Amino acid sequence: MELELTVIPPGAHPGLEAYAAVRNTVVPREPVTAEEVARSRVRKPGDVRMLARLDWHVAGCAGAIPSDLPDRTYAAVAVLPEFRRRGIGTAFLERVAAIAREHGSGIVSGAIEEGDAAAAAFASRFGFLEAFREIEVVRPLAGDEDEGEPPAGIDIVPVGARSGLLEGAYAVACEALPEMPLPEPYIVPPLAQWADEDATGPGVLHEASLVALDGDRVVAFSGLLLRAADPRLAEHGLTAVARSHRGRGIATALKRRQIAWAARRGYRELVTWTQEGNDPMQAVNRKLGYVERPAWIRLEAPLAAVEDALGRRA
User: 12: exposed, middle or buried (C-beta count within 10 Å: 0-12, 13-18, 19+)?
Assistant: First the structure.
């Protein structure tokens, strides 16, 4: 059978519908829409998405995406089960490696689901090793969730309630994001990009993306995001508290307010991720009734090692 890899052109191209369909079949835990992928590509110049066809049958999809961690290109490779073991994953990885070289990246990263032995074996062939784990947790919702009360002296309002709150939320994010337990410090994007992704953009549930105020000062932020491919599922984005106000129950109060909001509006489940080692946020999630799913294992390999392994298999 003849294998053909094609790059999906920029913009709202019809190929993104096929990309999303394949991705959602292979990775049903993280459903996406074509529109979400298109927005992601606009935010990150150099974001390349591809499709694979075997004799015109769509067989897989892949992305070579500039990472939020420095010196990395993220490889998002998905092959439909009936087309595996035919060299499609290797062909995708060859393209990703070439694009990573164009990005100027020295490392290729990726992710596999905990317990996926086949994906782990494929990754190990090309030198990928575990870098860290992301703990995925979910919170089933009932219609009578209690939103509780914030700690004394703290008010909770939507980030868009008045001017100045967005900038305060961004300041909290700039303090918290580099503290995440990652192999390298997270690259905090400019205010406009961060706001579009996490606080005020089209993928954000604006009424439930909240700040905590101590007087006029923003001391915490918690975003809630749409999951457009599943309209009854919502995703917690960043939840961050200023160092000066940690340990007072503010993160718990923000998430409890979001849980109650989502339950009243008919959402069936909230989902979020924390890195292994982020013990304070994991404790908050356990307290609020979130349940762990199998972790996402984040993998990394030096680009040169991937290229060498591909060369040996050429």
Answer: middle
8-state DSSP, 173: H
Q: Among 93, 127, 106, 136, which residue's Cα sits nearest to residue 281?
A: 136
Neighbour count for residue 93 (Cβ, 10 Å):
28
Sign of CA dihedral 113, 193, 270, 276: positive
Percent of the chain scoring above 90 in pLDDT: 87
User: How far apart (Å, rounded) are the C-alpha atoms in residues 253 and 210?
Assistant: 10
The closest alpha carbon to 47, from 19, 86, 85, belongs to 19
CA angle 273, 30, 22 (to 5 degrees): 155
DSSP type of residue 258? H
Give the pair of three-digit tokens for residue 220.
Answer: 């915490």
Tell me the C-alpha distance between 76 and 96, whole Å: 9
Joined together, the tokens standing for residue 158 give: 């939507």
Q: What is the pLDDT of residues 94-129, one digit of tens each?
A: 999 999 999 999 999 999 999 999 999 999 999 999
Residue found by looking up tokens 């303090």 in the block: 175
| Alpha-helical segments (H) within the chain | 15-26, 34-43, 88-103, 117-125, 165-176, 191-194, 250-264, 279-287, 303-312
Determine contact, residues 29/136, Cβ cutoff 8 Å: yes
Q: Are 49 and 7 in contact (CB under 8 A)?
A: yes
Side-chain half-sphere CA neighbours of 299 within 13 A? 22
Tell me how far the alpha carbon of residue 68 is from its chain's centroid. Answer: 10
The residue type of 138 is V
CA-to-CA dists, residue 98 to 104, 161, 229, 310, angstroms:
10, 46, 31, 11
**pLDDT per residue as tens digits for the range 170-219:** 999 999 999 998 888 888 999 999 999 999 999 999 999 999 999 999 99
Enumerate domains of the chain plus CATH numbers: 3-135+297-312 (3.40.630.30), 142-267 (3.40.630.30)
